[in-house]
Design goal:
The protein is of the alpha/beta class and about 350 residues long. The chain folds into two domains: about 120 residues, no CATH class; about 200 residues, Rossmann fold (3-Layer(aba) Sandwich), CATH 3.40.50.300. Helices cover about 55% and strands about 10% of the residues. The longest helix has 24 residues.
């Protein structure tokens, strides 16, 4: 069974959400108008200036004022959402922005010891640019009980990583999660700066290779990891990594690239959960021979990779899954382990 074709990481980068504001309307999203965005920014500025005025003229009243303005705007947002037949929490992000603006105005008017006024400016700026839709995704994840995170599938070639990753993506989607499958063996920019063809051996059975390639690959991998994993926990999203930064390190090490000085940096990123799919080297080579355009590595290279993956699993406590069993048996074990960490999302009710 061949995995379905995936979009390249470069296309993931180009298509990355630009954190635009949206209104949630019974599950459908409508682009928020520029006027609405401007009105919210003006509201935050007005609240900040009013709070600054209150803290200057009536210092004892400033804390009750901050509490009052936040509660009043939250009540207004709930009423506005109900009248428009939206989720009653739809305008809660705007109340958070108003609260930040009020706190910022209060801190700006605090005694001039630099730290409080400067932090007040920071709060006001955050209130102006904090993304509403990001907050809504966080609220939705909390109300649905979704726990976001990242899952990495590791193992030598032919162990079933790509096929199981594609099936797990469908499994997560069926459980109410927003899920993204990221193939870590496809680079963002390294192949454009070096020769084409993937992680090829530096020579016919030789060692060495371009000493700059591991450094470029490290930067590429870390960038891809940041782009795809930032905020997944709060938003209740799941990212499935078909291989990981560690896989690049393991491959280069087995091929003889000068990667040892970078080992600590390669091993620094961590997914929330990882599985090592384990198959014998002979089985791996048999599967690879059945793939017409697959790079064929020597058995010594695959043996060293296998040993490295088992060391990673032992040192970090990751499960080692016997992937010589039937596909369905392995898939059931993966799902059984994952459902303990990622419960089925509850359906949120709409008013």
């Amino acid at each position: 069974m061949q995995p379905s074709s995936r979009a390249s990481p470069l296309s993931l980068l180009k298509c990355k959400k630009r954190w635009q504001d949206y209104l949630i309307d019974r599950g459908a999203r409508r682009p928020n108008s520029g006027i609405e965005k401007l009105k919210m920014k003006l509201t935050a500025l007005v609240v900040a200036f009013l709070t600054l005025a209150v803290s200057t003229a009536f210092p004892p009243l400033v804390l009750p004022w901050v509490l009052l303005i936040v509660l009043a705007y939250a009540a207004y947002g709930v009423l506005r959402s109900v009248l428009r037949k939206l989720d009653y929490l739809n305008d809660l992000p705007n109340a958070v922005r108003v609260g930040l603006a009020a706190v910022g105005g209060y801190l700006i008017g605090a005694p001039l010891n630099f730290i409080l006024p400067s932090s007040g400016v920071f709060f006001v700026v955050i209130s102006l640019y904090l993304n509403d839709e990001y907050q809504r995704r966080v609220i939705l994840a909390l109300t649905q009980g979704r726990r976001g995170g990242s899952v990495a599938l590791l193992g030598i070639d032919g162990s079933g990583k790509s096929t199981h990753a594609a099936r797990l993506e469908k499994w997560f989607l069926s459980r109410g999660y927003s899920c993204t499958l990221v193939p870590f063996h496809r680079y963002l920019f390294v192949e454009r700066l070096t020769r084409k063809g993937g992680e090829r051996s530096p020579g016919e059975g030789g060692h060495g290779g371009n000493p700059f390639r591991p450094l470029l690959s490290l930067a590429d991998n870390i960038l891809l990891n940041l782009i795809t994993s930032l905020g997944v926990g709060l938003e209740g999203r799941v990212v499935i990594y078909d291989r990981f930064t560690w896989s690049t390190y393991v491959k280069y090490r087995a091929l003889g690239y000068p990667v040892e000085p970078l080992s600590a940096l390669y091993m620094l990123p961590r997914p929330n959960l990882a599985f090592v799919l384990d198959v014998p080297v002979t089985k791996s080579m048999e599967i690879i021979r059945g793939r017409g355009n697959h790079i064929r590595y020597a058995s010594e290279v695959l043996t060293e990779e296998k040993e490295e993956y088992l060391k990673i699993a032992a040192s970090r406590g990751y499960p080692v899954i016997d992937s010589t069993r039937s596909f369905e048996t392995v898939q059931e074990e993966l799902e059984r382990r994952l459902e303990k960490v990622f419960p089925t999302a509850r359906r949120s009710g709409r008013s």
